Amino acid sequence: MKKDFFVIIFFATLLFSACKPDDSIGLSIQPPQDAVKVVVDTFWLASTDFMYDSISAQCNDSLSMLLGEYYSAKYGSTKAELIVQIAPPINFQFPDETIYPTQPDSVAMILSYSQWFGSSAEPLEISVYQLDKATPHRYDFYPATFDVSDFINVNSNLLLGSQITTSIDQSLPDSIKNSQGIGTARYTKYKFDDVWTQSFFDMAKQKYSSADDFINDFKGFYITTTYGQSTMLYLSQIDVMLYYHYTYQKNGRDTIVKSYVPFPANKEVRQLNKISHINTQNLINKRDSVNYIKTGGGIYPKIGLPIGAIRTQMKDSIGNKIRSINSAILSVEATEIDSSKIAMPIPPTMLLLAIDDAKEFFETNGLNALKNNKAAIASYNYTKNEYTFDLAKIVTDMTRSADEPENEADKEAYFQETKQYILVPVDVYYTDSGGISDIKPQKYVGAITIRSGKNGYSPMRLELVYSGF
Length: 469
What we know:
Elements: H1 2-18, H2 25-28, E1 37-44, E2 46-48, E3 65-72, E4 76-84, E5 102-118, E6 124-130, E7 159-165, H3 174-177, E8 186-191, H4 194-204, H5 211-217, E9 221-227, E10 230-250, E11 253-264, E12 271-278, E13 290-294, E14 302-305, H6 307-318, E15 323-333, E16 349-354, H7 358-364, H8 368-371, E17 375-381, E18 386-390, H9 392-398, H10 408-414, E19 419-430, E20 436-441, E21 447-451, E22 461-468
Antiparallel strand pairs: 1-22, 2-14, 3-4, 3-10, 4-9, 4-12, 5-8, 5-10, 6-7, 6-9, 10-11, 13-21, 14-19, 15-18, 15-22, 16-17, 16-19, 17-18, 19-20
């Protein structure tokens, strides 16, 4: 007991010696109102399903030409069609017909792809038309909802023909079909009739010095599907191949030479994707506990960020102190996850974009919104089943105390403002050093259901940590 008594006395002496007035003078002279104050707040968000239909129709990279239709009972049908220009071989000349009489053999359109979504066995019918009214202008912006009738009179007799196909050749043995995964080159081929082949050959015999000269003579194609709702092809290339032969004398005998001329749909000309979301409008905003997200200019939920309420709460909590946002986390949680083999894929990356900047983003695929702290990017966390956005910079820019208006009428609007954003599935491209070089709206088939701001289990929210000093 005596030993324990001395131990207690020893630690008590240390405690009192460590709390001498000289050591705490810094705290004793600091007024309470000057102490750093840290506040944690949660703000519930308003969200709603929203159809945004003005993404660009331009196909400007590989695997961006969609063709087909896919139906989902939950998200509706997505149908993709194409307006396609083809480029001629510049300054190409056929052999001199006075010496080498040249004849066309056939013309074929080859649609190449290495990726697809949907059924491997369900047939789809691809129909090809020739444009007769107009062709896309080189630099004009076309939304993915453009009207096909601007380019073709679909009621006229301009159907060149149809081809029934499947995403995987069903004539192959099962062992080969099952081994054909993503990355395996596939194609479907359409052969034009002899009359059209001769007409195209007669036109192609001209020597074209530019793609524009050729397009003045041949406007292009309209490619669509007229049967099937189970497959979407992600085309990487479209080529029109003109096969021909000529004959010449060699050692007193006729010798036949066969060759071909490619007319590719490449970057020298334009390809537009018409994307339609059929019946989707009738499916959205039926349940206030969830929101839908669907790729390809489909459903991009609208989220209201309560900037005015945040400003009010910060002012009430820390007064006129210098404000600092320590953390601003928006969690977008997935729910009703479909794990079946036919489920539409979850978009891997999401962009939270101010709706005021949407037009510029979709027309130019620009990075301005991200650089100016008007957008944020989040990747899907497959463990937590959520996208987590860091909005610290966005909230900081919109809650600076120096920006508070002096006019009372303006103050009312300032402290009631709600900033509208949309959630957009995107593809992100990086530089060799890891920086973001480009962001484009995702066109591949994809969808996800998220918890809304009114979800009873876990509503959408912004969790904010801020301080004042």
